[in-house]
Amino acid sequence: MRIVLITGISGSGKSVALNVLEDAGFYCVDNLPPALLPSLVLTLATDGTSMLAVAVDARSAESLVDLPANIKTLKDQGHDVKVVFLTANTHSLVARFSETRRSHPLSHKLRPDENPASRRTLVECIMEERERLSAIQQLGHVIDTSDLAAHKLRNWIKELIAIERAPLTLFFESFAFKLGVPLDADFVFDVRALPNPYYDLTLRPLTGMDAPVIAFLDAQPSAADLLADILAFIEKWLPSFKTDNRSYLTVALGCTGGQHRSVYMAERLAAHFAPTERVVLRHREQS
């Protein structure tokens, strides 16, 4: 059975992701206690279900500790299990809860020593949820949705579930430093030292995917040197990540606006590794 576990911080887009999977034909279950996962898989497998998506959150804190063992058991049984962890910075989460006027799931749960008259604030609930899920975050692919529009998250989830079982997938992601470093990045490279096409009025409206910008940066010796250095780093350490049984490795390239230099560098890196590796390319600031 193909199983996708959606987990992460409340307000980071788990419902959006689950809806995408439901539209793709997955049997979807929301807020399932992890302890029930093995029996659910057994029941659905008996009924002939081939694709299952399950959302797990911090409300099932007591059984979250068993989730890594449950995932290993399912993989040992031959199931294809993929874990997607969604997160966002606290500022974005507070804004989303304010916009929807919904309460945080943990705000309804009292700690044993807690006075009902002094419930936790939203920020306190978010911090506690991060702590509860900290160990789970290491189990799968992390997606930072802080500055991600819902339609882009839907596209990324579609892209992710289309990836068949593989030893490791390389994600190259361009971004703008002024909008924050992606939380899902394993490696971050700053390409702001390169000459900026933004200051050429003919290149300003274009992106790093357009031929004039590519020609401009191709002509810069510093761009070739930086690209060679990043390529050498990834090529040196990629075998170690494969040996460590990593499923995903995200390399983020940042410039000021996420439009020219970072896009160019991400495109160049993706093109280099695409013939030999499973590669996914993302441009966070491009529509």
Automatic annotation (TrEMBL):
GO molecular function, one term: ATP binding
Lineage: superkingdom: Bacteria
Keyword list, A-Z: ATP-binding, GTP-binding, Nucleotide-binding
Pfam families: PapZ_C (PF22740), RapZ-like_N (PF03668)
Designated name of the protein: RNase adapter RapZ
Positions contributing to ATP binding: 8-15
Transmembrane segments: none
Occurrences of domain RapZ C-terminal (ranges): 169-286
Protein residues bound to GTP: 57-60
Stored NCBIfam families: PRK05416.1
Domain RapZ-like N-terminal: 1-162
